[in-house]
Amino acid sequence: MKILIADDSRVMRQIVIRTLRQAGHGGHEIVEAENGADAFSKIAETSPDLVLSDWNMPEMNGIDLLAQLRASGSPVPFGFVTSEGSAEMRQRAESGGALFLIAKPFTPEAFDEALRSTGLV
Amino acid sequence: MHPTTHPAIHVAPGAGDVMAMVNEVWSTFVDAAPLFPTSPIEADRSRSAQVRVTGAWSGMVTLEVSEVAARAVTRHMLAMSEITPEDVTDAIGELVNMIGGNVKSLMPEPSILSLPMVAAGHIAVPSEATEVTRLDLLWHDEPLILRIHSLENDTRSTP
């Protein structure tokens, strides 16, 4: 499966990739994007099976990325990986069509559970 | 205590909650070696980062660390020994972003978290800010100072 990881922090993208590996999901192809706008164009170019996106990014944030994807007709499975895990943010994520929200700091178990919940793995 | 016409109520997240959250961020993404609380220190604070929260609660979260600590934190977070100055800025910014996002979740919402800002030298705190939490910590004998300031909310909507 192909996973697109959108986060403006290269350090966090590396941590997400490492955590996926620790969760037993190291065999997937990874595409990296630096913000929502970059992610939107790379999703069109590379057709990932799953998007893991930060919420708070320059250029275009994660919730606007999700809205733009849905407005353009893309049904790509989408989950947030964000430092903001409050009930309000989870509600906004769900309303926008996200499948899950993984709050930072996260564990490999949280990634495994989230990926399994999508039915993709 | 604040001789203003409309005294502000400086709500603060509990210091115990903040310490527990910082320890969780640290042990998950930085290092198993613990952070030791210490008495307030006037130490090398050559790297600093901040995020702001604006909304039902407004404030700023700042992290100030020595250059040695900033580089060591970056090497740990990336799990790489070769790092660039951009990596250090990125890592320290992401650290304060995670701590700030969790502070935001502890406080009344709705509110918005800013993108992190990272700078050389220590933080210039605006005059309207009131320090509500300060943690002085040592990690491998290197200092880290985490502070939370409450900001009077000048964008409050009419009730």
From TrEMBL, chain A:
Signal peptide: none annotated. GO terms for biological process: phosphorelay signal transduction system. SMART domains: REC. The modification 4-aspartylphosphate is found at residue 54. Keywords: Phosphoprotein. PANTHER family: TWO-COMPONENT RESPONSE REGULATOR, TWO-COMPONENT RESPONSE REGULATOR ARR22. This is Two-component system chemotaxis response regulator CheY. It comes from Nocardioides daedukensis.
From TrEMBL, chain B:
One of its GO terms (biological process) is chemotaxis. This is Chemotaxis protein CheX. InterPro entries: CheC-like_sf (IPR028976), CheX-like_dom (IPR028051). Residues 48-121 form the Chemotaxis phosphatase CheX-like domain. Pfam families: CheX (PF13690). The keyword Transferase does not apply. Keywords: Chemotaxis. The keyword tRNA processing does not apply.
